[in-house]
Amino acid sequence: MNKLLTSLVCALLFTSGSHAQNKFTLLPSMTYASAVSPGGRYIIGNDLSNVYGISGASFVFDTQADTISWRTSFDGTDFSKCGQLRTITDNGVMCGVTKDMGHITNFLQEPAPTNIATVWEDGRMTQLPYGDLDTTLIKQQEDGTFACDMTADGKTVVGYLASGNFAETYPCKWVKGNDGIWTLQHFNLPDGYTTGTADLVSADGSLILGSVIKNWDTTLCYWLNGEYHALTLSDADQELANRGSSFMVGVSPNGRYVLFSLCNRVYYRIYDMQTGTYRELPSFDNEGVLGNVSITNKGDVFGTESYGSIFFGTEVYNHPFWYQYSSNRLFDLTYYLKLFAPGVNQPFSLSYTDKTQAFPVAVSADGNTVVGNKDIYTMLGETPNAWYVQAQMRDVVIPATPASPSAVSNALHTVDLSWPADTSSYASFTLKGYNVYCNGKLSQALTQLSNPMQLTLQNVEAGYPQFTVEGVYQDANGQEMTSPVSNPATVAVPDNYNMPLFDDFEGGSLQTNYWQSVKYQGDDNDGYWTAAQYMGYQSSYGVTTGATMGTPYSNAIVSRPIDAKTAKAVKCTFMAMAQPFSTAAVESDKDTLSVDYSLDNGTSWTTAKAWTVALLPKQWGYLTVNLTQQLAGKQFRLRIHKHGLGKLQYYIYLDNVSISADATAAAMTGMTGHQTAGNQVALAWKDPQGAYALNYVH
Fold first, then answer.
1. How far apart are CA 341 and CA 344, in angstroms?
2. Which run of H or of E encompasses 585?
3. CB 483 within 8 A of CB 399
4. In the prediction, which pLDDT does 666 show?
5. For residue 1, what pLDDT is reported?
6. What number of CA atoms fall less than 13 Å from residue 102's CA on the CB side?
7. Scanning 364, 377, 408, 644, which has its CA 20 to 30 A from the CA of 370?
8. pLDDT under 50 in the chain at which residues?
């Protein structure tokens, strides 16, 4: 989402009684933080262990005394000592889950206790009563009662009973009377509903958030002063909700702002209880996954946008963010630190340009204490560490975020950048220049203004560098103020332009030979080109792409520049296979794969040869384009371009792409063929195993 925003006055929360100093603190190893008290004094978390559905060991960290205390533990045998803390008040009262040693089950496993909602206060642990809950439903070690949240006075706990390994849940709450006795109470549910959850509660207890379930359909809801209300969604969001589960994920301590998610935590929304309206929580782009969100009394949200997956072998990193509700703007968490905790000594980077694996998980009511984690993948040998930042938020004017620069490499190791200058008028400061960063490091400081801003960088290292810019401003007193950093622009910078170029995509990357995936039109889901194993010939590495969304599209993979100035011939050869979902002629002739060339570094393109999807091989076959007349003696770029109306749904697979002076494809053996309908000829030849698996229709 690259937008040039106009100036906005950010009405940040004025902090009275703020922290004496800014600091960035790393907790001991093997700590994973999960929550912070509303006033920011206490942090709770666990050690990432799992004992039948809950953590085995949990801690409390006092930010004033800088001390940690482990309140639960598990040595592998004594279940009575394990437990998971969920919420803590400013007075140190906590709720969570422990093991009920009086309720043992051996469902498909060794005998072990089930779970039970628990409160810790003044050094005492109290397991909350079952009341009239049907405990016969608790049959598995993962089942039981669960305390999810509690009020600021520590006298109301909300949660649920879970059975069938969370197949069914029954919402409830526990209230502590003046006599110190806890009693269980049920919620007012709509007719026909018996199951659901109570997940969150405001500090004063007037607002309780959760969900009710009927026929496997989940309805997000809230109880305001004991009265049930269903959360009303727009038609578009109801459609998203119908695609997957919805969850209540956060509430500001003052009860005004509510965070909820749709479609299995893909989309996030912020609901204003005062106005009865809600808005989308934005993201930096469409590639990442939002998560770990928490919200302040002003509606500001702290969280992360995550990229990659250890389960699919892709690089994992995060983009920690601070979203400001008053201005509806999204910022890097590093910008929050620059504004409100300048000069803090960070023990590690929180910058997404450094591919950080750190992320925030909780924030205090005033936004001055942000809590997070880093290095959590113990399966990869990492050691998790919790951390927290103490800052001092104040009223500031934040200038516009620069647009992501346009970046292109027009010559070896050279990158040309351009972006529009900020033309907004500010009362308190003036634009003086821009800082340009390459992979997060300052590359050049510009003090001469123009519109657009333009810069040519020499001696850029080969690879896929990312470029960002930030505006530099000066106030009337000569103090410097910088804007948020722009979204990055990534450009391929090849180490040479040599021909031939051959790519069998071994290792599963388009970047090895500096291919760029470019989307010109259409849905993002139709714009991907993925290099991966099993996508190539004989299940080797190859490239796949497709069209499945039913709308017009145009996208391509574009080669690096190729120098054929001394070549007398140029040919492009590659293996291809198409798998249409339909063979109807009226549909299949509207979608095309073409080989195009450019003589001006991609400014304009000419099609050299094109195939409709109907004419592409249905089993692996070689396609060849003779480009000698057009490209011999010149420097050029090629692209393999797919485009169409989206009438046909299909996948295409490519492998062994060669751009050379000679045809590098293996000689065809056992060639045979016959004429088909019209003027078409179907050809077939043997693959390396001697089978007639290779064919082509022309």
1. 6
2. helix 585-588
3. yes
4. 52
5. 30
6. 5
7. 377
8. 1-19, 665, 667, 688-689
How far, in Å, CA of 114 to CA of 62, rounded? Answer: 30
CA of residue 79 relative to chain centroid, distance: 36
Which of 588, 620, 644 minimizes the C-alpha distance to 695? 620
Closest CA to 252 of 429, 74, 38: 38
Write down the pLDDT at residue 13: 26
Distance of alpha carbon 126 from alpha carbon 96, whole angstroms? 10
- How many residues in the chain? 698
CB 654 within 8 A of CB 593: no
Report the 3 state secondary structure along 181-203. CEEEECCCCCCCCCEEEEEEECC
Contact 39, 62 (CB under 8 A): no
Q: What is the pLDDT of residue 5?
A: 26
Nearest to 17, CA basis, from 510, 369, 409: 369
The span from the CA of 246 to the CA of 163, in Å, is 20
Query: Which neighbouring-strand residues pair with 160?
Result: 146, 171
> Closest Cα partner for 549 from 574, 528, 571?
528
List CB contacts of 445: < 8 A, sequence separation 6 or more. Answer: 433, 434, 435, 436, 472
Residues 6+ apart with CB under 8 A from 20: none
Return the pLDDT at 185. Answer: 97
Q: How far is CA 297 from the centre of its chain?
A: 25
- DSSP lists the bridge partners of residue 606 as 597
d(CA 150, CA 87): 7
Question: How far is it, in rounded angstroms, from Cα 27 to Cα 386?
Answer: 5
Task: List, as one string, the DSSP characters of 217-258.
Answer: EEEEEEEETTEEEEPP--HHHHHHHHHS--EEEEE-TTSSEE
Distance of CA 178 to the CA centre of its chain: 46
Three-class secondary structure of residue 326 per DSSP: coil
Q: Checking DSSP bridges between strand 359-363 and strand 329-332, what pairing results, if any?
A: unpaired
Q: What is the pTM of this model?
A: 0.80
Query: From the DSSP assignment, how many helices (H) and strands (E) are in the chain?
Result: 4, 53
